[in-house]
Amino acid sequence: MDQILNDVAGLIVNGLPTFILVIILTVCVKYLYLQPLDKVLAERYKLTEGARKAAEESLRNADSRVSEYETALSQARSGIYQDQADFLRKVHAEQSAQVAAARVESDARISAAKAAIAAEAKAASISLDAQSDLLATRIADSILSGRVS
User: Fold this and answer.
1) What is the chain's Cα-based Rg?
2) What is the number of other CB atoms lying within 10 angstroms of the CB of residue 24?
3) Which residues, 6+ apart, have CB-to-CB distance to 24 below 8 Å?
4) Handedness of CA 46, 48, 49, 55 (dihedral sign)
5) pLDDT tens by residue, 63-106
6) For 9-44, how does the pLDDT look when each residue is reduced to its tens digit (9 = 90+)?
7) How far is Cα 59 from Cα 139, in angstroms, rounded to an integer?
8) Which residue ranges make up each domain of the chain?
9) What is d(CA 86, CA 82) in angstroms, rounded to the nearest whole number?
């Protein structure tokens, strides 16, 4: 049993420098490699998360701007439609006024033409009456004088 204990003690003594070296390497790896790596990863996470939040904020801003532009476009369209409707009403009113003026003018021309026709008819009637009296007198003179031509 002493032999076994001596062998185990020899193994432990021989393995002790390796154990200490592993401990030292573990500490070195932890402080020289893992901690800086954790810091870099944490910084990277912060930057990535910050970029993600900035992208989300930018997306929200873009959505709000799109809705603002759509609202402005809708208002501009309604303004254009209103202006177009006002213009069409104005054009229709002008056309109605022109039609009414043309109607008044044509009614005046028709009245003047009717008056002229009536005057010509009256003059023609008077002329026919005068000519009929003259013809009646000639016919009567011809019959009475006995000559018939």
Assistant:
1) 61
2) 10
3) none
4) positive
5) 999 999 999 999 999 999 999 999 999 999 999 999 999 999 99
6) 888 888 888 889 999 999 999 999 999 999 999 999
7) 114
8) 1-115
9) 6
Which amino acid makes up residue 7? D
Tokens of 137: 């007198």
- Rounded to whole angstroms, the Cα distance separating 76 from 70 reads 10
| Amino acid symbol at 66 | V
Which residue bears the tokens 């076994």?
Answer: 4
C-alpha–C-alpha distance, residues 58 and 46, integer Å: 18
Q: Which amino acid is at 13?
A: V
- Would you list the DSSP string of the chain? -HHHHHHHHHHHHHHHHHHHHHHHHHHHIIIIIIHHHHHHHHHHHHHHHHHHHHHHHHHHHHHHHHHHHHHHHHHHHHHHHHHHHHHHHHHHHHHHHHHHHHHHHHHHHHHHHHHHHHHHHHHHHHHHHHHHHHHHHHHHHHHHHT---
CA distance 77 to 106: 42
CB 113 within 8 A of CB 120: no
